[in-house]
Amino acid sequence: MSNLKIAIIISSTRSNRVGLQAAEYVESIASKRSDMNFEIVDLRDYPLPFFDEVASNAFVPSKNPVAQKWQHFIAQFDGYVFVTAEYNNSITAALKNALDYAYPEWNRKAAAYFSYGSAGGARAVQHLRDICIELQMAPVRHSVLIQGADFFKVMTGEVKVKDLEYLEPLVNEMLEQLSWWAKALKEARKK
Ligand SMILES: Cc1cc2nc3c(=O)[nH]c(=O)nc-3n(C[C@H](O)[C@H](O)[C@H](O)COP(=O)(O)O)c2cc1C
Prior knowledge:
Blueprint: E1 4-10, H1 19-30, E2 36-42, H2 65-75, E3 79-84, H3 93-100, E4 110-116, H4 122-134, E5 138-139, E6 144-146, H5 148-155, H6 167-190
Parallel strand pairs: 1-2, 1-3, 3-4, 4-5, 4-6
Bound molecules: flavin mononucleotide.
The site of flavin mononucleotide has 14 residues, from loops.
């Protein structure tokens, strides 16, 4: 089997977001694996309007060129690592909009979560798991979070994500679970 293709999706689009640093950290660990290839996906590169379609593209194909480009792009991946911030106890509006702009492209793919926030982004991840199930993804059990004092130090620039050494084995366990599901689903999609 050729290597699995995994997107690392940054949920936030603010110019001074923590999300980019977090995604680059996940990629730095992930790129040590030989079974999966990773690509950071920045929603800023896909300036989707707030959802303005006739219906979900499960039912009516999109005519919007940015939406078509987004759907075509994400369709190529076998799984996704969502690097998610928590905005008012949930995921960012930008990520929810991007998720809504596709349907079959997400189906039967594996999903994993790396989050950050005062409570570790745990509430955002819980919402995101639910959304992913509706989109027929398979969320893996193990997620990784940066919380409390560590998160505030990252947010204020006092430490970098890569300085939090305890994260690496946790990310590795998450990737191991993602690999298993992404591989199983890739095989199953071929049948
Ligand atoms: C609109 C908004 C709402 C937020 N709500 C929460 C929240 O509910 N829980 C939390 O832990 N942090 C919250 N925060 C703080 C974010 O966790 C923090 O700003 C983080 O850096 C956001 O991710 P980003 O830098 O990638 O945009 C919020 C920030 C913003 C801008």
